[in-house]
Specification:
The complex is a heterodimer of chains A (115) and B (112). Helices cover 0% and strands 55% of the residues of chain A. Chain A has 115 residues and is an all-beta fold. In chain A, the strands form 2 sheets. In chain A, strands 2, 4, 5, 6, 9, 10 and 11 form a 7-stranded mixed β-sheet that branches. In chain A, strands 1-3-8-7 form a 4-stranded antiparallel β-sheet, with no helix packed on it. In chain A, a hairpin with an 8-residue loop joins strand 9 and strand 10. In chain B, strands 2, 4, 5, 9, 10 and 11 form a 6-stranded mixed β-sheet that branches. The chains are: A mainly beta (115), B mainly beta (112). At the A-B interface, strand 5 and strand 10 of A face strand 4, strand 5 and strand 10 of B.
Amino acid sequence: DARVTQTPRHKVTEMGQEVTMRCQPILGHNTVFWYRQTMMQGLELLAYFRNRAPLDDSGMPKDRFSAEMPDATLATLKIQPSEPRDSAVYFCASGSGLIREDTIYFGEGSWLTVV
Amino acid sequence: SQQGEEDPQALSIQEGENATMNCSYKTSINNLQWYRQNSGRGLVHLILIRSNEREKHSGRLRVTLDTSKKSSSLLITASRAADTASYFCATDGRAAGNKLTFGGGTRVLVKP
């Protein structure tokens, strides 16, 4: 089964440390999304890419977060420095076409705890 | 900000009963999707309904869309314990920059 793969699945880190989360989208998909899920805010779109180009990262705190796609098989989300309020589940999702015509497929998430 | 808002926030039913949840949204959409999330897992797409459609079926799922009221409903018929999950509506549209935005979800518990 084709699926979105995320690493790490779980991460506990100390405040101030750098955290890098990785995502391998489904082969052939040209859109990639990063979402953050918390109890208080629900699912928030942080960034999305089409054909590796960032289309929108307005939902992402720019001072500490960065998202990139070094190549078509890898997307990264980096937090530097991390803070306790960044504790959340971070989901990567990929899609094969235009958002308005297509569904997206989620990975299992990276569960981040910053202490 | 969330475009879609689900109602109720939580629902508890007996196996075999139907479960209905609603989603309201604020601005024009291209389509509306429903996703399911099992505890500790990622979201899984269930069904997509386009803005020019009024009703859609998929197995035990029935989705309606009323664009005049900016609302949608998801009905799960003959529920099973395995349907226990959180259900999210997701919308995209010009106001959201064609981004897919999710509501807060409805937590459904199906008791055996």
